[in-house]
User: What shape does this take?
Amino acid sequence: MSPSEALVQFAGRLHPLIIHLPIGILAIAVVLEFFIHKPANQNLMPAQKILLFWGAVSAVAGCAAGFLLKQEGGYNDEAVSYHQWSGIALAVAACTAYLLKRFPVKATVSKALSVCIGLLLVLAGHFGGNLTHGSDYLTQPILAMAGRGAASSPLPKKVPVTDSTKALVYADLIEPVLEQKCRQCHNAEKQKGNLRLDNIDFLKKGGKNGPVITAGNPAESALYTRLLLPEEDEKHMPPKGKPQLNENETALIHWWLEQGASFDKTVAQVPKSDLIRKIVSKLTVGGPAGNEGEPKGSSLVPVSEVDKANDRDIDALLQLGAYLKPIAADNNYLSANFINLPSFNDRQTKLLLPLSKQLVWLRLSDTEITDGGLADIAKLEQLTRLELDHTSVTDRGMEYIARLKNLQTLNLYDTQVSDAGLQKLSALKNLKAIYLYHTNVTPTGIEKIKSGWPSTELVTQ
Amino acid sequence: MNTLIDELHDQMSRRTFLGKTSAGLGAMALSSLLNPFGALAASDENQSLGKPHFAPRAKRVIYLFQSGAPSQLETFDYKPKLEQMWGQDLPESVRNGQRLTGMSASQSKFPLAGSTFKFAQHGKNRMWVSELLPHTAKITDELCFIRSMHTEAINHDPAVTFFQTGSQQAGRPSFGSWVSYGLGSENRNLPAFVVLLSKGRNGDQPLYAKLWNNGFVPSIHQGVVFRSGPDPVFYLNNPAGVDKSDRRMMLDYLAKLHQNQAQKVLDPEINQRMAQYEMAYRMQTSVPETLDIGKEPDYIFDMYGEESRMPGTFAANCLLARKLAEKDVRFIQLYHQGWDQHGNLPRDIQIQCKSVDQASAALIKDLKQRGLLEDTLVIWGGEFGRTNYSQGKLTKENYGRDHHPRCFTIWMAGAGIKKGMIYGETDEFGYNILRDPVHVHDFQATVMHLMGIDHERLVFKHQGRRYRLTDVHGHVVKPILT
Assistant: This one.
């Protein structure tokens, strides 16, 4: 940008500052006009002349700056032209009013002119406001109150989607974000970067730098990458000082783009990470967080959220030498491993009970646990994965294990479990894999139970 | 004495000095006024996650690295066209001016060489495997072949370094170090990153310790080599005449000295060193216990092959890898040398395949029967592929293949990987990729993803820049995930 261009741009951007001068000055002049014709107020006449002079000058300056700002582009031509011509008319009217003060004219004429100036002030101001905030900015709350125009609501969505299984990814999760954080500058009237985000066709079309969304690839989608730039960066969106997207909103946009930027899929049809599921469940009420579209077997972690476990209870196990960690960041479910504690035994299983809501993965391989200890283990109702290999558990203990309805994989390798024990586990309908290598389970026993477990993998060798 | 203290103070690193004393310094005070968090945050930024970003599919990785680059054309990527066009020159339209290595670029002809070994389809998905790998052929239902791997490196050292560290230049942390830094270990008695070495034949490309080096992440995350033989870890055993209680006393006193030093010098590496001494102490018990294959029954040796009884072979290392996986070692890295067959390929690749085939397949089966395959990821592959034309003279009995970075095959199996899957496709000449290319960074991103790590968020700030294993690249290969 050459220095002169920069100067032009700078002057143009002074427009919003300058135009408030004629608004204030001329508003006073309009009011004053109805007083100065009374003989008692004759002494105010010189003040009125000064007001009209500076009102006219600042109105002209405002017009000039406005014209320069228009060169920057990014606005709807029609909306600009309304604002432009009403502004010019106001400047002309203000100049005329000032010049008329030099001649003796009838009070009615100058009062009429003042009314004109007042009307033009309102008109030009309103058109200008529409350019900056959008044409429905002013009327929206009224229309919303009357129950109309909700579709284009720029207000935060107050009513959460009631059923997350039926919620639409774009319409219910993404569009509200665009609405609140982007459309102020990318709408029918104001199109920064020639980009409109107020309907799907324009969103697909993109702006002056080409498309802004690449289905399946957030890293190639300006709609997402612009959000990630440092706030100081000129290309960062929304521009510095405007309301920014929060982390959840950014994550939603990433997810929507990554999953193909569909405009008609429901939340249930699109795979979700733990984080997205959490965000979605916060934004919606009722219904499970839509687990249908997920490939079965991918989720060894419950969908619903759980409270954080008590630190004291965790410490008790850590002190003992167990490994105990959350499954993941932002997840309160726990994984426990007794790999460094082969002495863990039935007397110590009680320590696990306070964590029964949180424990989902438990590795007790090679510990001293026996059937007696499994009575406590059976109370860890959230367990999805349990490893009991290389322990002395037997068929008797399987009665307890059969109570763990959420169990998905069970490792009994190198135990004394036999066909009778296996039979007791048939109630575990969610079981996806059971490891029976080096047990007393026989092929006949497997044959017998197989039909009840159509999708369970029985690994014997 | 004074001079010694001066010396110690000189050792205080500039970074530590600035990090710890900034509050009292005018310049630092100014910078903290301008950026209240920047000055002090640097030292707190490099924190290990300790837990994954999201729920992991894989708790451990066993990486069977085939060093020297196995030929995909004799193993997994069947190209009958090369047999039909045997001896004809590689059409220029296929190569299209792409770079060759200096070793074959000056050849006047590039005669196409088909595999002398027969291929057959195996398993439910009819996956092509050559007769060189009969045991692997039997377990294809557990495997996922990626036939469209490609890399930027053209020579061994940069190519292996690229696979292991995400950069062709040495100095970045190894894959296992990143994972160790990110997730830590579930077993406090063994390192999170263990390395086992073997070779199929002598005289091949060398390996270097830099491949399992921790680079700029703390040194506790360095890969530890377990050697074959009576002394698996150098200097781990007590010297003659020193018993366990002597060692304990010595370590306790050493720890005191270290603490003093750490308080004076403020070098975080001292704490790392202390942690390593303690780990080594625990390893005095855990290593012999874990590496003892004496208790393994005969049918296990039969499964892995007779060589598994010989320490230092690939087969023995596969068996050890299983034992380390049972002990929850996070990243188990095997390297098997001997695949660099520029000449005499038909003879050498037979020896080489024989040394890995049975044990690789046995490892998968063994992990599966123990219930470990569902949370262990196994990877088998080299640093690049080999050319479809012969390097040197082509005869019916003998030929060689040069380096080929543009396409090669690796396989993955286990945790979170689709079974019996073929991903990616190469052209009928086996020269270029037709569909679904997988770059080295994509591969790394995918393995990280399976371990619950977002490869874009596991970063380490070093010399003013935040580093990732995948640099600024890498896309998770979703279609191969369950």
